[in-house]
Amino acid sequence: MHFRCGHAKANQWQEAAQACLMQLGQVTDSDSLGFLYVTDLLADYLTEILNYVKQHTQVPHWVGTVGIGICSQDQEYFDEPAIAMMVGQFSDHTFQVFTEITEEFKEFARTHQSWCDSKRPMFAVVHGDPRNDQISNLIFQLSEQLGEGFLVGGLTSSRHQNLQIADEVIESELSGVLFSSAVEVATCLTQGCSAIGPRHQITESSHNIIIRIDDRPALDVFNEDIGQEFAENVNKIAGYIFAALPLRGSDTGDYMVRNLIGIDPEHKLLAIGDVVTPGMSIMFTCRDTQTAYKDLLNMLNRLKIRLHGKTPKGGIYYSCLGRGKNLFGKGSKEIKTIQRLLGDFPLVGFFANGEIYHQRLYGYTGVLTLFL
């Protein structure tokens, strides 16, 4: 495998696309798959951009989506018209682009099942629609459809059009590309929040409303964990304090961060951005820049060990919209840290409205995948 990438910003999409193509250089017949990400300020022109790129590269297959922020190499672009693209050399039989996932997976099975049966794909890059309240279930079902396949990706982040690319511009629940086991990858996740209290158990709940924790009023337990300063001033909680649902059976203490969306002081209830049931574990976390950066370094060092001194051939990075400049400040610190620790290699991605890792939908995380 060989990869090359390009990225640029410009007021006119044609200028940005041309600059990206210049950076790609001479594209060969062996370049068979491209990844394309554009900021949502260019979403209205996504079809034109994709057609232009296809015409000038002759790369037949493309996947991607729209993000309020995108990234490539050592540069992050937020709230400005920008394009990032990467092309790679894959044998035709090692990947297959898919689209139009539905809850029954009938169309997916009809179109892709024979390929899946012969190639036994265990890895997929996927993009999802954040407007679908069943998206977490679809992610899990797709993984199960692939025989517990490993998924990485993110949900589109856009202020108007939630568009994806799967050989053409679409609006789909899930789309992306399946890879056979012949494509060697290494992937890892970094958390953006740190625990501020012990693990608890939900003992009474209704849908996404938590009534009792550890057989006590939910708000009492919450206030003890976050401390008096936050308990007395709930306005400070927004964007800083979150709920976390630990993953059962995880040997790394992994958890899924969920937003707090409501507090009822009179009835001492909490509402979070996910459905919960009695018996589930819960913790409370805070978004902390220093802890998040330390965890990012730990993730990169774990991947570096797996590289055995080699530089990755290419990579894709999906980070939360709440990270990037919103967590680490200006100057593209997050993406530059990846290049500094792992080397200068082609890399593209975007800042998502939710990150996909293995079988689950995460928040406030970064998911890095390296092609080896």
TrEMBL record:
Domain FIST, first and last residues per copy: 31-217
GO cellular component: plasma membrane
Keyword annotations from UniProtKB, A to Z: Cell membrane, Membrane, Transmembrane, Transmembrane helix
Keyword Cytoplasm (UniProt): no
Ranges for domain FIST C-domain: 218-359
Xref: InterPro entries: FIST_C (IPR019494), FIST_domain_N (IPR013702), UCP018953 (IPR016741)
Main location group: membrane
The keyword Ribonucleoprotein is annotated on this UniProt entry: no
Protein's name according to its UniProt entry: Histidine kinase
